Amino acid sequence: MSETAYIIVHDVGTTGNKSCMYRITDRIELVDSYLVEYPIYTFPGGGVEQKADEWWNAICTATRTIMERNTIKPADIRGMAFCAQMQGSIFVDEQGKALRNPMSYMDGRATEQIKKHLNHGLLKIDGKWNLRKALKTLYYTGGLAGTAKDPLWKYHWVKDNEPEIFEKAHKWLDVKDYLVHRCTGKFAMTRDSANITFIYDTRPGKLGWHRGLCKTYDVDMDLLPPVYDATDIVGHLTLEAADQMGLVEGIPVLGGGGDVPLTTIGSGGLELHDTHIYIGTSGWVVSNVDKRMVDIGNFMASILGAIPGRYCYTAEQETSGACLQWVRDHLALDEIGVYLEAQHICEKNDEYNSLYDFLDEVVLQTPAGGGNVLFTPWLHGNRSPREDPYSRGMFFNLGLNTGKRQMIRSVLEGVAFHKRWMLEAMEKKIPRQETIRFVGGGAKSEVWCQIMADITGRQIETIANSQNVGTIGATAVCGVGLKLFNSFQEAKTFIPVEKVYTPNRKNRAMYDRNFDVFTRLYDRNKKLFLALNENIINEKTGDKPAGQMPEMHKRTSPPC
User: Fold this and answer.
1) What would the pLDDT profile of 468-490 be if each residue is shown by its tens digit?
2) Contact 469, 266 (CB under 8 A)
3) How are beta strands 77-84 and 257-258 bridged, if at all?
4) For residue 357, what are the domain limits?
5) What is the pLDDT of residues 40-92, one digit of tens each?
6) CA 409, 410, 416, 420: dihedral to nearest 10 degrees?
7) In this structure, is residue 11 part of a structural domain?
8) How many CB atoms are closer than 10 A to CB 390?
């Protein structure tokens, strides 16, 4: 493209919103970004909520800050879009006001609801799901709401537990779609969010809310909004929203998308079977495919992507970068020696501008394999390739000679082992990919990039600003929707590779052996996880908010 265009996009994550301004010339270039954090609220029984006004205030504050500290005029902003956490659940009234706190993708309270509507009957798939209902849902949607964390069961949790709120509901929205309404006054949902309700027909040529599935799962179709493509202009920024953001009325607001589909685009994974690994607080492996795919045994399925006719074949991991944060807080900051050493180094050497940089150096100086110490990165349960909310992290094979540094390295390796586990399960249905894009906050670490290459045995590519990959994808969506790009394939040339990492063959045999042990640790311990955690997770008493969970790709590291 010959002209310069400015786009505002918002990355609405678990613990913060990062608003970004991008300039599109011969590449997608970050001009400025600003992060505003907000809490999550946790409840006994697996409840996890957020506050809609805290999302909105973070978005407005971040946008105003960017506009105030740059010379770009508000009238020069060509478009806006959101990249947001998915699988939320927001009930709104006719004015679009949230009737209760949004339930997060992590909320797992709806155990009774999934039992009532899906986990019953004599004939079951995988011993869990009603055969007739599951097969019907798989046929029409390509997937299944198979855990208590899925939006369909949050819908029924509110209906069962808060009927007075449910009676007032006008529409049922996901996170991004609520925020689009807040900007435009328009009720809408993009196809990716509609897909993960698993009452939306995803068959080619048949896209739309499925009346039969709504009847099967007792969903009121009047609560379902119109569905748009990611590149559609849903509406235009209202005067009220513009004043709060420091922008001008009338800016086009596009459909945007959830974090998985837009990260796929932002990674540059725009060709068939292009695959990326993402490490933020959570993590995933996603391949860009041209047909629906599902693997019930490995708990993987495809969802509609932002590119028409494409699907994101997805394997999810609950805690990924969060494991490194746990290391920072409990193996580093809690250990006086390491903490003081890090502080000393930071004071003496500007190269170590954060404790994460120091941890990287610690890992680099520790031999590969960490003395054969293994770490399982299941700190909040697991999804793929073994769905289990009861599983937890552990260090395996500690000895008298095991030190803190070996344990720290084993955490990074454990996350990489899990990504390999998901990648190899995925490649039962797609061709093996010798080159993988690695994105998210984890890809900022060159040490982790090399570990990922060594453990997966693939060439690893990274891009600039990898921690902002979702907003890069949102910007590409704006570029296509506003006709700044002719196609998504053209947009790929605007997202160049920055660095390449090749596997160190010297480590291959050791990592192959350790990976084999890693994959067997879950099967050997799943009954023990259940024995220890079933009662805690299923506790139903109490309703007070408690605690926060940090987010790696949204939170900047504290300076030394």
Assistant:
1) 999 999 999 999 999 999 889 88
2) yes
3) parallel
4) 321-464+501-537
5) 999 888 899 999 999 999 999 999 999 999 999 999 999 999 999 999 999 99
6) 150
7) no
8) 19
Q: Name the DSSP letter for residue 189.
A: E
Closest CA to 257 of 307, 190, 188: 190
* Residues in a beta bridge with 103: 49, 89
Question: To which residue do tokens 């997608």 refer?
Answer: 28
Residue 207 domain flag: yes
> Is the Cβ–Cβ distance between 359 and 408 less than 8 Å?
yes
Of 130, 14, 153, give the one whose Cα is nearest residue 83.
Answer: 14
Q: Please name which of 438, 471, 92, 90 lies closest in space to residue 257, comparing C-alpha atoms.
A: 471
Which residue type is seen at 134? Answer: A
**In whole angstroms, what is the distance from residue 358 CA to residue 348 CA?**
12
Predicted local distance difference test score (pLDDT) of residue 355: 63
The pLDDT of residue 547: 37
Mean pLDDT of 493-512: 95
Counted domains in the chain: 2
Asked whether residue 151 is domain-assigned, the answer is yes
Residues in the chain: 560
Residue 558 is classified by DSSP as P
Q: How far is Cα 298 from Cα 386, in angstroms, rounded to an integer?
A: 6
What is the structure's pLDDT at 350? 46
Residue 111 belongs to a domain with what CATH number? 3.30.420.40
Residue 336, helix vs strand vs coil: helix
H-helix or E-strand spanning residue 480: helix 469-481
Closest by Cα among 448, 360, 372 to 406: 372
CB 288 within 8 A of CB 305: yes
In this structure, are 521 and 378 located in the same domain? yes
Amino acid sitting at position 163: P
381 - beta bridge partners?
A: 379
Flag whether pLDDT at 250 surpasses 80.
yes
Q: How far apart are alpha carbons 489 and 470 in whole angstroms?
A: 17
CA distance to 265, 375, 450, per residue, from 369 (Å): 33, 11, 13
Contact 100, 165 (CB under 8 A): yes
Supply the pLDDT for residue 537.
61
What's the rounded Cα separation, in Å, for the pair 442 and 317?
Answer: 14
**Under 8 Å between Cβ of 12 and 179:** yes
**Cα 109–259–323 angle (5° rounding)?**
65
Contact 281, 552 (CB under 8 A): yes
Burial 319-342 (b: 16+ CB within 10 A, else e): bbbbbbbbbbeebbeeeeebeeeb
Measured CA angle at 473 (ends 469, 476), to 5 deg: 140
Give a yes or no: residue 485 inside a domain: no
Q: CB-based contacts of 240: which residues, under 8 Å, 6+ apart?
A: none
Nearest alpha-carbon partner for 484 in 23, 8, 24, 72: 24
Distance CA 94, CA 91 (A): 10
Q: Are residues 348 and 206 in the same domain?
A: no
